[in-house]
């Protein structure tokens, strides 16, 4: 991975994680023309969940924010794989979708998913600004606290 984005990752002290295996019968990403769809990523690090439980009950908003960032790192690893390691092929992050494992009274979903959104802007600058949704869910795969999906435009 050589180029502007690789240099930015190094400057930010970010090493992309090993690619997590899909947790079901799906592929981690699909490419249609120059649009890359990345499947929902949970906070897997070295084969284990980094954050498990409900945000607002078991985990703080800050924990959820950190969890969303881990999800976003996994998204970046999937994008790098789709681009043959060259993240400079990313023209723009078009959209992020975030699911927060939480109770029915939790309403700080945007603060949690900001962990993923902020990382995209740190890495891609203005090209990392995106449309987004942030919603609550009563449970997520493997008990994950957060799941984030993304759509990118490639050059």
UniProtKB/TrEMBL annotation:
Pfam families reported in the protein's UniProt record = YjgF_endoribonc (PF14588)
Gene3D superfamilies on file:
RutC-like
Q: Which residues form the Endoribonuclease L-PSP/chorismate mutase-like domain?
A: 7-148
InterPro entries reported in the protein's UniProt record:
Endoribo_LPSP/chorism_mut-like (IPR013813), RutC-like_sf (IPR035959)
Give the matching PANTHER family: ENDORIBONUCLEASE L-PSP_CHORISMATE MUTASE-LIKE DOMAIN-CONTAINING PROTEIN (PTHR43760:SF1), ENDORIBONUCLEASE-RELATED (PTHR43760)
Specify the protein name. Answer: Endoribonuclease
Whose protein is this, by species? Skermanella stibiiresistens SB22
């Amino acid at each position: 991975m050589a180029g502007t984005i690789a240099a930015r990752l190094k400057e930010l002290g970010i090493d992309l994680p090993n690619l997590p295996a899909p947790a079901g019968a799906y592929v981690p990403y699909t490419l249609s023309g120059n649009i890359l769809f990345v499947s929902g990523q949970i906070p897997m690090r070295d084969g284990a969940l980094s954050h498990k439980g409900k945000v607002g009950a078991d985990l703080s908003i800050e924990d959820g924010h950190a969890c969303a960032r881990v999800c976003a790192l996994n998204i970046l690893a999937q994008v790098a794989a789709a681009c043959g390691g060259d993240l400079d092929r990313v023209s723009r992050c078009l959209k992020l979708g975030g699911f927060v494992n939480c109770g029915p009274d939790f309403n700080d979903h945007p603060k949690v998913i900001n962990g993923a959104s902020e990382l995209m802007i740190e890495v891609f600058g203005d090209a990392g600004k995106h449309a987004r949704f942030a919603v609550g869910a009563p449970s997520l795969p493997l008990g994950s606290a957060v799941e984030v999906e993304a759509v990118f435009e490639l050059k």
